[in-house]
């Protein structure tokens, strides 16, 4: 093993030891998911892991490795930014922080599978940075019937987020989608408003919980992720992303 890989492994081991998940918080999250279709848990992740993830995101930003997020088939830039204004980078285990984060989410995946028998089989996630003024209009993360994204997760990385910082995620009452998907203009009841505070994990059902990100006043950092089930469309296995 060369010294670079040795350093990487040492750092990953130290971070892993510093960031255990609390079993009772996982239980609480799963209970909420069963009863209300969403959950958010403050201080779910240790400061050590959150700080390492934020440092990783800042390193990626400094080398211009984030790209404007697209939406489905719309790649017209202006149209996309009228719906969402974040820049993203997919996690790929390139740093100890990403490796440890993905390992913790793997543990969560196993626990959810054990409790709910829903056969989640993989997790994909990206860093997201919302510059001041950016938002993400109300949407659902997957289409019913074609749903391979089953449970959405959002982890926030923002230390000392002020109450007037904006950028809250608003969760709306679950809705059944029509044949054309979810109607973005229907009026629906707000269920929860989540501050993007460092260490908070939010989870919700991907195909039935509409949500939005309110305009942020400060630069806002997060990791959006999805537990997936394999979906095959017309016999073709749907690839990740
Ligand atoms: O960052 C958030 O609070 C939610 C992001 C989101 O809805 C998404 O990326 O699909
Ligand atoms: Fe979303």
Structural descriptors:
binds fe (ii) ion, binds 2-oxoglutaric acid, 13 strands, 241 residues, alpha+beta
Topology summary:
Blueprint lengths: L2 H15 L5 H14 L1 E4 L5 H16 L4 E2 L8 H5 L5 E4 L5 H21 L5 E9 L5 E4 L9 E8 L12 E4 L17 E5 L6 E5 L5 E3 L6 E9 L3 E2 L2 E2 L4
Antiparallel strand pairs: 1-9, 2-3, 3-4, 4-11, 5-10, 6-9, 6-11, 7-8, 7-10, 12-13
Helix pairs in contact: 1-5, 3-5
Bound molecules: 2-oxoglutaric acid (AKG) and fe (ii) ion.
The site of 2-oxoglutaric acid (AKG) has 9 residues, from strand 10 and strand 11.
Report on this model:
- This protein has one domain: q2cbj1_9rhob like domain (Jelly Rolls), CATH 2.60.120.
- The chain is built from five helices and 13 strands.
- It has helices at 3-17, 23-36, 47-62, 77-81, 96-116; strands at residues 38-41, 67-68, 87-90, 122-130, 136-139, 149-156, 169-172, 190-194, 201-205, 211-213, 220-228, 232-233, 236-237.
- The chain has a seven-stranded antiparallel sheet with strand order 1-9-6-11-4-3-2, covered by helices on one side. The chain has a four-stranded antiparallel sheet with strand order 5-10-7-8, with no helix packed on it. A two-stranded antiparallel ribbon has the order 12-13.
- A hairpin with a 2-residue loop joins strand 12 and strand 13.
- Helix 1 (3-17) crosses helix 5 (96-116) and helix 3 (47-62) crosses helix 5.
- Bound molecules: 2-oxoglutaric acid and fe (ii) ion.
């Amino acid at each position: 093993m060369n010294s670079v890989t040795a350093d990487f492994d040492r750092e990953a081991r130290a971070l892993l030891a510093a960031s255990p998940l609390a079993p009772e918080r996982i239980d609480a999250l799963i209970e909420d998911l069963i009863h209300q279709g969403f959950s958010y848990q403050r201080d779910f992740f240790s400061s050590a892991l959150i700080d390492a993830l934020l440092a990783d995101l800042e390193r990626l930003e400094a080398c211009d490795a984030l790209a404007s997020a697209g939406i489905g088939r719309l790649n017209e830039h202006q149209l996309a930014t009228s719906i969402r204004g974040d820049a993203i980078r997919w996690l790929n285990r390139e740093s100890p922080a990403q490796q440890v984060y993905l390992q913790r989410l793997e543990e969560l995946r196993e626990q959810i599978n054990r409790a709910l028998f829903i056969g989640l089989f993989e997790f994909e996630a990206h860093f997201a940075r919302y510059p001041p003024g950016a938002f993400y209009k109300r949407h659902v993360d997957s289409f019913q019937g074609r749903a391979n994204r089953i449970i959405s997760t959002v982890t926030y990385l923002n230390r000392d987020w002020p109450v007037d910082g904006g950028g809250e995620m608003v969760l709306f009452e679950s809705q059944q989608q029509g044949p054309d998907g979810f109607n973005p203009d229907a009026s629906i009841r707000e269920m929860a408003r989540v501050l993007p505070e460092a260490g908070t994990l939010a989870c919700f059902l991907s195909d039935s919980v509409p949500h939005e990100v309110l305009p942020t006043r400060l630069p806002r950092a997060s990791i959006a992720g999805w537990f997936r089930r394999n979906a095959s469309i017309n016999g073709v296995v749907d690839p990740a992303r």
